[in-house]
UniProtKB/TrEMBL annotation:
Transmembrane segments: none annotated. CDD domains: HTH_LacI (cd01392), PBP1_sugar_binding (cd06307). It holds the Pfam family Peripla_BP_4. This is Transcriptional regulator. InterPro entries: HTH_LacI, Lambda_DNA-bd_dom_sf, Peripla_BP_I, SBP_2_dom. Residues 6-60 form the HTH lacI-type domain.
Length: 354
């Protein structure tokens, strides 16, 4: 059933007063007799009146300058999807005066992040979308943006003890638990399970630590920690070298290695090693539908990918800022996006054009 549109004119007629009086009550301005005010408020409640925020925003003709502080997709293809998501949101919101300035930093350089964060301060945007992948370096800026009255939305990485307008992304702990559960189905005998943090500074990546906690605690909760030896390694290497040397050392130390959980989008690096060494019995789970991961998923070398919906993170991050700034909506502190389990059998359904 289509919802009936209630206009200020309808309220005024029912209250037997003028539209100007109704407007003063709605916006709590000017003097209105108490009995008239109470009558109007009762009618507003009875008719379930909701202001037309879209019309109001179009009428205001104000420009809203938003900033996006995000990693360079040319250096890490994972970030292509959030870029596409925020661009899609900007296109939809352009009619309301929304413009987005991108501040692109090197995801492997703390100094690059700091320099771009300082540029954001100089720009003084109306709102900010940020992927705070450098935890320690980001903390001082959160206070500065708050002091400047700039609402900010976090995506990809949830950080405690700060007060963003909203966090959008995965539940990192449950994400790790989910990875453990689906890997467990493929492990038919006791052995070692590797948590691989590939090309990450784990001490400065709070979300990856939380993922590992979720992964480990699944095995403990299922009383499987005596059956499976869960180990964790940071596997860092130059792009031209690959992880072969370090993975060789891990296999030499743990010849019963039965599974690998890659905590970021770099599962393809481990998959290439498994293929090269014909290691068909080692199960592999990772994240995200970047092209290299799709390749190894289709070949059956990556068993499962968990889709963190990075496009949706960028898209909804901008929309939450717009909902707050333009449409004056209440914004939930957390918007967790679904964690989808992707196999080669259902991959095509997640590759439709956005």
């Amino acid at each position: 059933m289509k919802k009936k549109i209630v206009r200020i004119k309808d309220i005024a007629e029912k209250a037997q007063t003028s539209k100007g009086t109704v407007d003063r009550v709605l916006h709590n301005r000017g003097r209105v007799a108490d009995d008239v005010r109470e009558r109007i408020l009762a009618i507003i409640k009875e008719l379930n009146y909701e202001p037309n925020l879209i019309a109001q925003s179009l009428k205001s003709q104000r420009a809203f300058n938003l900033a996006a502080l995000i990693p360079d997709p040319n250096l890490d293809s994972y970030w292509e999807a959030p870029h596409a998501g925020l661009e899609k949101a900007e296109k939809e919101l352009r009619q309301y005066g929304v413009h987005i300035s991108k501040f692109i930093f090197n995801s492997h350089s703390e100094s690059s992040f700091i320099a771009k964060a300082k540029e954001v301060i100089r720009e003084h945007p109306d709102g900010l979308l940020i992927a705070p992948i450098f935890y320690k370096e980001a903390l001082p800026f959160f206070k500065e943006w708050a002091d400047m009255g700039i609402p900010y939305v976090l995506f990809n990485t949830q950080i405690e003890h700060v007060a963003p307008l909203c966090y959008i992304g995965q539940d990192s702990y449950r994400s790790g638990s989910l990875a453990a559960k689906i890997l467990r189905f493929g492990l038919h005998s006791p052995g070692t399970v590797l948590v691989a943090h590939v090309n990450e500074d784990i001490s400065n990546s709070a979300h990856l630590i939380t993922k590992e906690d979720g992964f480990r605690n699944y095995f403990k909760g299922e009383k499987l920690d005596g059956t499976f030896n869960v180990i964790s390694r940071e596997i860092n290497f130059p792009d031209e070298e690959g992880p072969d040397k370090q993975l060789d050392e891990i296999r030499a130390q743990h010849p019963d290695l039965g599974a690998v959980y890659v905590t970021n989008s770099k599962a393809f690096e481990v998959a290439a090693y498994l293929e090269k060494n014909a290691l068909k019995d080692i199960k592999l789970v990772g994240y995200d539908l970047i092209e290299h991961n799709q390749h190894y998923l289709n070949k059956g070398i990556i068993d499962f990918l968990i889709n963190q919906n990075p496009l949706g993170q960028g898209y909804w991050g901008i929309h939450q800022l717009a909902n707050h700034l333009i449409f004056k909506k209440e914004i939930p502190a957390i918007k967790f996006l679904p964690l989808d389990i992707i196999t080669r059998e259902n991959l095509d359904y997640y590759l439709d054009p956005q």
